[in-house]
Design a protein that fits this description.
The protein is α/β, with parallel strands linked by helices.
């Protein structure tokens, strides 16, 4: 029988890769980036930066970014195509808004159905002029200005992308910009800024709210960046090992940022045998190794207050839940409806085709685990969503390879080496 075995160094983190490129381009000098994730999404960011006048080149396995400063973007000729990448769109809209240039952003059909107003409404309050399709979608045109107003923003709906867009904009705004998030989100941008020596303040407010204060404009000095392994990418193989008998794997160089490892706590609560060992700190992030071995998982309730920290892992956690004893309930999943696909619908559609008892009530997903012997070919619809395709590729190991996924090409959006690494471990 097939099992997961051996060890692997995980590919670079997608969130860190985007930020490494953008912040390097806003520094004043040359940055060397190692272990950059060369996925479709990250390459979209790289190509857009080039169109904004940033010189970026690759030598062997390293990337070199020649930064022009926080006010150094030049007006591009033609559209800035974000493809499928929401991170590219939202962060770059923020980054260019405080430069005196006009930019038009476009995306593919999927991205063009995802909300951009959650970012643009804040930028417009500061003085950026933005024309947006149907008041919410790409294509959109930004007329930026280096005279944007330094104001206080309150982000009501948890979004690390919105927060990061405002931070990037504030780096070239004269005066104090304050950003309050009422619900904590991933802090990769803040950690990288600290690593780069950018002086800003973080203040804890009541009820878990946080205020970030930036006093721009800034001059950012370049520092070489090594991108840590992506924990979201690691999650697929971790779950694969936990649900496949006689499996045991170790994954090296995984980023252990607390805002990205909630899924490990969930899997431990389900009975997963996991060992996590921190080994070093890199570019402001904790790095370590994760060992996972086959476990008899049990169903649990995952509360809605954890959803902001599990948004990318719910698809693979649903695979773990399908193999657990009893019922797993995942609460407060509304944000899953606004990803590359409506992931609640995508998960339910495919599980029901296989024969699982799965239901959605008010954005709460319930899955009753059971062992299903799949002896016929079942077509799995990826909905062109990389995380759906990867999640059901892991379940396929237990289904005698009878799950036929319609579009594996979309996996390259976030993890181009997924198939190679999967084959290496089984």
């Amino acid at each position: 029988m097939v099992k997961f075995k051996g060890s692997l160094k995980i590919s670079g983190d997608k969130s860190i890769s985007h930020r490494a490129l953008i912040l390097s381009s806003m520094s004043t000098g040359v940055t060397k980036i190692t272990n950059l994730l060369e996925s479709d999404d990250v390459i979209r960011t790289l190509k857009i930066l080039r169109r904004l006048g940033i010189r970026i080149m690759k030598e062997k396995s390293c990337w070199y970014v020649y930064g022009n400063g926080t006010n150094g973007f030049i007006e591009p000729k033609g559209y800035l195509d974000c493809g499928n990448s929401g991170t590219t769109a939202r962060l770059m809209i923020g980054a260019v808004s405080s430069n005196p240039i006009k930019c038009t952003f476009i995306g593919d059909d999927s991205l063009s159905k995802r909300s951009m107003s959650r970012v643009t409404k804040h930028l417009e309050k500061m003085g950026a002029i933005i024309h947006i399709t149907k008041k919410d979608y790409l294509p959109l045109m930004v007329s930026g200005s280096e005279k944007l107003l330094p104001i206080k923003h309150k982000i009501q709906k948890a979004s690390a992308q919105v927060k990061s867009a405002l931070i990037l904009s504030a780096l070239n705004i004269h005066g104090k910009t304050k950003i309050i998030e009422t619900i904590p989100t991933r802090d990769h941008t803040e950690r990288m800024l600290k690593f780069l020596g950018v002086d800003f303040k973080i203040k804890k407010l009541g009820n878990k709210a946080t205020q970030i204060e930036l006093n721009g404009p800034y001059e950012i000095k370049p520092k070489n960046i090594e991108v840590a392994g992506d924990p979201s990418s690691a999650s697929f193989f971790i779950v694969g090992a936990l649900i496949t008998p006689k499996s045991k794997i170790t994954l090296y160089n995984v980023m252990l940022n607390p805002s990205r490892t909630e899924f490990l706590k969930v899997l431990k609560r389900m009975g997963g045998k996991l060992k996590i060992k921190k080994t070093k700190k890199n570019c402001g992030e904790d790095i370590g190794n994760i060992t996972a071995e086959f476990s008899n998982l049990k169903g649990i309730n995952i509360p809605s207050n954890k959803s902001a920290f599990l948004i990318d892992e719910y698809p693979i956690l649903s695979i773990a839940a399908s193999q657990a004893k009893g019922k797993t309930v995942m609460k407060g999943l509304n944000e899953l409806r606004h990803k590359e696909s409506d992931r609640i619908k995508s998960i339910i559609y495919n599980f029901k085709k296989i024969g699982y008892n799965i239901n959605d009530e008010n954005d709460n997903l319930s899955i009753i685990g059971k062992k299903i012997k799949v002896e016929r070919e079942i077509k799995i619809k990826s909905f062109n969503d990389h995380r759906i395709a990867m999640s059901f590729s892991i379940l396929n190991i237990l289904c005698n390879n009878n799950l036929k996924i319609d579009n594996k090409k979309c996996i390259s959006i976030s993890y181009p080496d997924f198939e190679k690494h999967l084959n290496y471990l089984i």
